[in-house]
Specification:
The complex is a heterodimer of chains A (368) and B (118). Chain A is an alpha+beta fold. Chain A has 2 domains: 225 residues, no CATH class; 58 residues, no CATH class. Helices cover 61% and strands 9% of the residues of chain A. Chain A has 13 helices and 9 strands. In chain A, strands 2-3-5-4-6 form a 5-stranded mixed sheet. In chain A, strands 7-1-8-9 form a 4-stranded mixed sheet. In chain A, helix 1 runs antiparallel to helix 11. The two termini of chain B are 27 Å apart. Chain B has 118 residues and is mostly helical. In chain B, helix 1 packs across helix 3 and helix 2 crosses helix 3. Chain B is elongated and about 50 Å long. Classes of the chains: A alpha+beta (368), B mainly alpha (118). Chains A and B meet through strand 2 of A and helix 1 and helix 3 of B.
Chain lengths: 368, 118
């Protein structure tokens, strides 16, 4: 369980970085980039492995190594936590928290789902044509319900767009609404929400995770707006803005696992759409550097840097299968024979997939 | 019945109004064909109708017996519409319908006869 605690220090740092960068650069960096940063972080948070990087002190990797070693120092100081945190009671509290939070996510979604299931499929030709022009590998259903006030979409494998019945919105704004929800479906935003829910259930005790939760949802909407407006005229944008402002009045009950048309801070969305400077070289460069920075920092969540005494040229990646002393590290390298030599009698070389499977089995066994 | 019937519940009620007493299972089959609802969904909606006093469950076989007639349900909806949108004045609703050109000559004639006979 210790690895979960250690990650939080790093994860907190990365979240704070992204939050600060977002505050400063929100009008210069597109929403898709923010979402990408969050996804990079989420992958690291979900990864149950610790990757030990053996880096040579070559010119190219020195800075990276330096950065990671700096993070390592922070982590090691985190190692000196009082024994209380390693205790059984903490583990039980953590597990209870996971169950409660996961329970809240799931039950809140299920109760809403029961209502959504009573929706009635729409029959007009308009929708048939729309569906033909927006074909996906998955079939998208469009239904209407008089129990919702604002359009939403749910379902990952069989996505459903739910429209409010008998509402003004359907006549005027239908095209925008369908387009918006379709983009959510195409970008698998609903799946992302599920993954986010899982992460928040595991790291529930870290307050910054909830900051991340809030921001990911907002960035999903920003990114969706962006994709929607991408190749359209300013008039189209004006109309879309009008739709958003109109819908701002209709507030839907909180549903944690559906993408809803306009739940998240509308003002921020509108500002971003109006004030974003597009396609300037400086902004592109900025985006690139932030993505690189966050990627490297995020690796610090799962990576532990080991000192390298190696003189050989090839960099090898060691997946260490546990923090406990005496556990055998597995080395994956370009040259398996070399890797075997390096480890000597301590371990043996495996392919990446073999190592992953082995690690997963060990984790499951430990939990049991 | 005091509560409003939602669209989903009206779908179930329509079947019962058309066909009289029907087994819940049959309702589920019909609705599955018509609008793709799963059995669970239909049973949930039937239960809601029972809670609202619109349907009565009779054994054996979970026969659904309708407790409100279609006219009663229509009256409820109309009353609510008049209260909500026309400040409780039915004549304004009628005026709206006429002004909207929703009533054809035959419809207006029928209205006139109704008024004269009431």
């Amino acid at each position: 369980m210790e690895w979960i605690l250690h990650r939080n220090i790093m994860a907190g740092m990365v979240i704070l970085c992204i939050v600060t960068a977002r505050k400063i650069f929100i009008y210069r960096i597109p929403g898709r980039i923010w979402l990408l940063l969050w996804k990079i972080l989420m992958v690291q948070l979900l990864c149950p492995f610790t990757i030990a990087l053996r880096l040579q002190n070559a010119d190219v990797s020195r800075k990276v190594a330096g950065l990671l070693r700096f993070q390592e120092k922070i982590k090691l100081s985190g190692n000196e936590m009082p024994p209380l945190f390693a205790g059984r009671i903490m583990k039980i509290i953590w597990l209870l928290g996971v169950i409660v939070i996961a329970g809240i996510f799931i039950s809140s979604h299920l109760t809403k789902r029961i209502v959504y299931c009573t929706a009635i499929p729409v029959k007009e030709n308009y929708f048939e044509e729309w569906r033909k022009s927006h074909a996906l590998k998955r079939t998208v259903e469009i239904k209407e319900s008089d129990r919702i006030a604002v359009p939403l979409t749910y379902g990952v494998i069989r996505p459903v767009i739910l429209l409010p019945a008998h509402a003004d919105i359907r006549e005027r704004n239908l095209a925008f609404v369908l387009e918006h929800e379709f983009i959510h479906i195409r970008c698998l935003d609903v799946l992302l929400k599920w993954i986010l829910a899982i992460i928040c259930s595991i790291y529930w005790y870290n307050p910054l995770i909830w900051v991340m939760y809030n921001l990911v949802n907002r960035d999903m909407e920003l990114s969706c707006d962006e994709v929607l407006l991408k190749n359209h005229t300013p008039e189209y944008r004006k109309e879309y803005l009008q739709v958003l402002i109109d819908l701002e009045e209709k507030r839907v009950q909180r549903d944690l696992l559906c993408s809803s048309f306009c739940k998240y801070p509308m003002e921020e969305r509108i500002r971003v759409m109006v004030m974003t400077e597009r396609h300037r070289f400086a902004n592109v460069l900025l985006s690139l550097s932030i993505v690189c920075l966050i990627t490297i920092l995020s690796i610090g969540i799962t990576a532990r840097v080991q000192r390298t005494d190696l003189q050989d040229e090839s960099a090898t990646v060691v997946i260490s299968c546990g923090e406990e002393a005496g556990e055998v590290p597995y080395i994956i390298g370009y040259d398996e024979k070399k890797a075997g030599e390096i480890l000597g009698e301590q371990g043996f070389a495996l392919t990446i997939s073999q190592a992953i499977i082995k690690r997963a089995c060990i984790s499951c066994w430990k939990v049991v | 019945m005091e509560k409003k019937l939602y669209d989903s519940e009206l779908k179930v009620m329509e079947i019962l109004w058309r066909q009289g007493e029907v087994k819940a299972k049959n309702i589920a089959d019909i609705l599955n064909q018509q609008i793709g609802w799963s059995k669970t969904t239909t049973y949930t909606v039937i239960k809601k109708c029972i809670d609202k006093g619109a349907i009565e469950r009779r054994e054996p076989d979970f026969m659904c017996h309708v407790l409100i007639s279609k006219e009663e349900a229509q009256k409820y909806e109309t009353d609510e519409l008049i209260e909500k949108m026309y400040d409780g004045h039915p004549d304004r609703l009628v005026a709206a319908l006429i002004g909207d050109k929703r009533l054809d000559k035959a419809g207006i004639q029928r209205l006139k006869e109704l008024i004269e006979n009431s």
